[in-house]
Design a protein that fits this description.
- This protein is an alpha/beta fold.
- The protein has one domain: TIM Barrel (Alpha-Beta Barrel), CATH 3.20.20.70.
- It is built from 14 helices and twelve strands.
- The chain has an eight-stranded parallel barrel, surrounded by seven helices.
- β3, α2 (54-65) and β4 form a beta-alpha-beta unit.
- α7 runs parallel beside α8.
- The two termini are 44 Å apart.
- It binds flavin mononucleotide.
- Flavin mononucleotide (FMN) binds at residues 39-42, 74-75, 117, 200, 253, 287, 325-328, 348-351.
């Protein structure tokens, strides 16, 4: 079935083969009801303690009600120093377990598998919230909001962007501490009851900066060759796996390319994915770019599914499952990506902010009106199904009458 055939208002659509987007996927002991994932999206809504609030409960509950098989929390920062802003959620204190457990439980009760993501922002830490400028914190922020900048760290003393603060080069003891923080964060996510965990190693944050030769100029065994640059990323996977249950899947988000001269390449991503697969990673979460500035140079058109080829390549060459993300907005397109085997999972980000019901609307588009009964939760679907039938009956009656009138 082509994507065009899949997108239909035809009431008989239900008799066709079920769209692949709505087929289940089991990863280790976790069964996802469909292939739609809500991508991690920071909300910058926490207080300085990094703890979730009622806002987060409502936000994630709403996203879970939208029908995705898996909903990720935003990045949960593994240490206060690893935050982007003073409003990031954290996973550094045992106090986060209880409120995170409420979020995980709420997601599950609304029909989505609950996923968490963990992050250390590295040299991109200590910035303003997006709407305050998204620039590195400075004396101005102390004056305006009492928010003092803090020291950032990275594999080498190289700033993320010209004019940005220079991070401190991490010592081996810093590296050991970061590994322990990743493991402790994974433990807290486990204790909170999440079913899926995603390690954020993309977008110029700490792990990504170890991978890329642009940001990693170390001369010890954490730099230099591909093997050296991958060392920290693999050790993080080991540390996290040591705390993450064997029956729960581990995702790993990478920037598959840097898109910079001398930067990290897709071939290197394949090598990394193979090594991660041997360390218990199940799904490659395929993003790209962001090593430095957020507005990276546009060398490929930013169109729907522009990152799908990365997932396709990693899936094909490693045998691991792959998730794609990036400007996916049309149900028929998402269906084609899964149906053609280019990715196992399709993650939706901003489109879910635009329409938290995107997954169930995709079901309506791909499956037809019966999706109100088969996919939508009954508290909404029962009424919408009745509405659809009564509108259809009214349409028939109208066209019947106008048909008679035209005969007279
Ligand atoms: C508000 C916002 C916050 C984001 N926060 C995160 C994050 O916490 N972790 C992450 O891996 N990506 C983050 N991203 C990137 C998204 O997960 C996603 O990869 C990106 O938005 C592209 O997908 P989209 O075009 O469907 O939005 C964020 C994106 C947005 C718009």
């Amino acid at each position: 079935m082509t994507a065009e055939e899949a997108l239909t208002d035809d009431p008989d659509a239900d008799t066709r083969r079920a769209p692949r987007l709505f087929t289940p996927l089991t990863l280790r002991g976790v069964a996802l009801k469909n292939r739609i994932v809500i991508s991690p999206m920071q909300q910058y809504a926490a207080g300085c303690d990094g703890l979730p609030t009622d806002y987060h409960l409502a936000h994630y509950g709403r996203l879970a009600m939208g029908g995705a098989g898996l909903v990720f929390t935003e990045a949960l920062c593994i240490s206060p120093e690893g935050r982007l802003t003073y409003s990031d959620l954290g996973s550094w204190d045992d106090a986060c377990v209880e409120p995170l457990a409420r979020i995980a439980d709420t997601m599950r009760k609304q029909g989505a598998m609950p996923g968490a993501q963990i992050l250390h922002a590295g040299r991109k830490a200590s910035v303003q919230r997006p709407w305050d400028g998204f620039e590195p914190l400075s004396g101005i922020d102390i004056g305006e909001r009492g928010e003092a900048p803090w020291e950032t760290v990275g594999p080498s003393a190289l700033p993320a962007n010209p004019g940005w603060p220079t991070p401190r080069e991490m010592t081996r003891s810093d590296i050991g501490a970061a590994l322990a923080e990743h493991a402790a964060a994974a433990r807290r996510c486990r204790e909170a009851g999440f079913d899926v965990l995603d390690i954020h190693a993309a977008h110029g944050y700490l792990i990504h900066t170890f991978l890329s030769p642009v940001s990693n100029r170390r001369s010890d065994d954490y730099g230099g060759s591909l093997e050296g640059r991958m060392r920290f990323a693999l050790e993080v996977a080991d540390a996290v796996r040591s705390e993450w249950p064997d029956d729960k899947p581990l995702f790993y988000r990478i920037s598959c390319i840097d898109d910079e001269d001398g930067g990290w390449t897709l071939d290197e991503s394949v090598e990394l994915a193979r090594a991660l697969g041997k360390r218990g990673v199940d799904v490659m979460d395929c993003s790209s770019r962001g090593l430095g500035l957020r507005g990276t140079p546009v060398v490929v058109p930013r169109e729907q599914g522009f990152q799908v080829p990365f997932a396709e390549r990693l899936k094909r060459d490693t045998g691991l499952a792959a998730m794609t993300v990036g400007l996916i907005m049309e149900p028929a397109y998402a269906e084609s990506v899964v149906a053609e085997g280019r990715a196992d999972l399709v993650a939706i980000g901003r489109e879910a902010l635009n329409d938290p019901n995107w997954p169930v609307h995709a079901a309506r588009a791909l499956i037809g009106p019966k999706s109100y009964e088969s996919v939508w939760q009954p508290r909404y679907g029962w009424w919408l199904s009745k509405r659809e039938k009564s509108l259809e009956a009214a349409r028939r009656e109208r066209s019947g009458k106008s048909g008679k009138e035209s005969l007279l």
